[in-house]
Amino acid sequence: MSVSPGSHRAPESPAPAAATTRSVPQSTRPSTTVDESRWPDVAHRPPASWLRTAVAERLVRHALARLPLRVRLGGTETLGLGGPLMEIHDPKAFYGRVGAGGLIGFGESYMAGEWESRDLVGVLTVLAERLATLIPEPLQRLRGMWAPKQPTAQRNTPEGSRSNISRHYDLSNDLFALFLDETLSYSSALFRGFPADHSLLPAAQHRKIDRLLDQAGVGPGTELLEIGTGWGELALRAAARGARVRTVTLSQEQRELARERIAAAGFADRVSVELCDYRKVEGSFDAIISVEMIEAVGAEFWQEYFSTLDRLLAPGGRVALQAITMPHDRMLVSKDTFTWIQKYIFPGGFLPSVEVMEQITAEHTALRVADRDGFGPHYAETLRLWRETFTERSEQVDALGFDAVFRRLWTFYLAYSEAGFRSGYLDVQQMLLTKEVSR
Q1: How far is the C-alpha of 420 from the C-alpha of 88, rounded, in Å?
Q2: Burial 398-414 (b: 16+ CB within 10 A, else e)
Q3: Alpha-carbon dihedral sign for residues 355, 357, 360, 365
Q4: In this predicted model, what pLDDT tens digit does every residue of 120-136 receive, in sequence order?
């Protein structure tokens, strides 16, 4: 996600020796080398007027002074009420980036090494808990004037969706395998208790998958459609129950590895893995399952997504969804805003609220929400395990051709997401939708 779509996708091989690099100066740290061709908006601070930077500095200082944080500015001044330590090494650069890009600038400043924290999740959790009140209400009403807009090029049309999905999921299968568990499940697990350790992830992922399969009533002879294949673990477990599975994805890398895993398990005759947009699927299915795929649909296409589920589900059938959600009021005010996550991690992505999903299904489909369960703390724990493993294997990430800025980017992404769930700002839901038999 970037102002110039595609320019921020991390490379899959080391940069050539001739690549242009730039040292980002920091007041109390050695310089950080940033490859301009890979990370143009990190290497070069975006232009911001003196007035905008000054306003940003005043707002940021006022907010930080009232938070349960310790914020060290350039090693000479400390703000906050006490708590996790946030070290801003280059305050001038930090204020300039926030003034020019808001939360995008906040994330890019971390990527550039201008600020950091040994307790990154702790700092981000404090900020997430107070996200709705960090900016004074009068300025929030002017959000449309200063917040960046989502680029048209990232709309989730059939063509746009394939590009958006590829920029994240086609980075490298080997990269994801470094920090995921052996099931290669890239969604929230469901634990028996906390804290958990990495050895418990496979069982917790199977527990999550099995609950979805149970909700959808998947068993021998079930005709199952899965929207969003991942690396095939759900399809494998459905096939082991005797179901016939059609699973669709827009990721070429995921499709190839999922096919290999399904064939190795002996289920190639029961599972079809297709490179296909969900809108292009035809047929009738007893059950449909989609795990954390609606986040990539885009608000503009939510109605079409649920209408497609309605069209494909046989009367009396069941849909089991797993979806990351955000508060309805925050969804409404942020739906047109271009975010750091959209720019660098999930182009075109946007989280729904429970309310909007219930409203769309009730008003535009024959589907009805029969049951739902939120388990956000389990996602925080899942993300903690992924983040710790990603950090432990930083040398292997480097060996795949991803540079230090990419590692900071992904560390921030995983910590940012974990903080969202720890603060309660984000939740993850399993939802059962049913379709009544027509009389």
Answers
A1: 22
A2: eebbbbbbbbbbbbbbb
A3: negative
A4: 999 999 999 987 777 66
Question: Does the CA dihedral 272-275-278-283 come out positive or negative?
Answer: negative
Nearest to 249 by CA among 240, 237, 236, 258: 258
Taking CA 165 as the corner, what is the angle to CA 373 and CA 291, rounded to the nearest 5 degrees?
Answer: 20
Q: How far is CA 352 from each of CA 95, 144, 154, 297, rounded to the nearest angstrom?
A: 31, 20, 17, 10
Long-range contacts of 238-241 (CB under 8 A, 24+ apart): 238/213, 238/271, 238/289, 239/265, 239/267, 239/270, 239/271, 240/265, 240/267, 241/213
Q: Could you tell me the two tokens for 18?
A: 């001739």
The tens digit of pLDDT for each residue in 205-221 reads 999 999 999 999 999 99
- Express as a percent the part of the chain with pLDDT over 70: 89
Distance CA 11, CA 144 (A): 34
Choose between 33 and 177: higher pLDDT: 177
CA 231 to CA 424: how far, in whole Å?
Answer: 29
**pTM of the complete model:** 0.90
Give the contacts of 426 (CB within 8 A, at least 6 positions apart).
324, 325, 326, 351, 376, 379, 417, 420
How far is residue 290's CA from residue 234's CA, in Å, rounded to a whole number?
A: 10
Calculate the dihedral angle through the C-alpha atoms of 213, 215, 221, 227, rounding to the nearest 10 degrees.
-60
SS (H, E, C) 401-426: CCCHHHHHHHHHHHHHHHHHHHCCCC
CA distances from 178 to 53, 183, 251 (A): 40, 12, 18
- State both tokens at 200: 């418990």
Find tokens 């489909």 and name the residue.
365
Do 310 and 225 meet the contact criterion of CB atoms below 8 Å apart? Answer: no
Query: What pLDDT, on a 0 to 100 scale, did the predictor assign at position 154?
Result: 86
Q: Per the structure block, which two tokens stand in for 412? A: 């921030």
Measured in whole angstroms, the distance separating CA 285 from the mean position of its chain's CA atoms is 29
The predicted structure's pLDDT at residue 20: 44
Q: What number is the average pLDDT over the span 189-208? A: 97
Q: Going edge to edge, which strands form the sheet with 70-73?
A: 77-79, 70-73, 85-88, 115-116
| Rg, Å, the chain Cα set | 22
Bridging pattern class, strands 244-249 and 367-374? unpaired
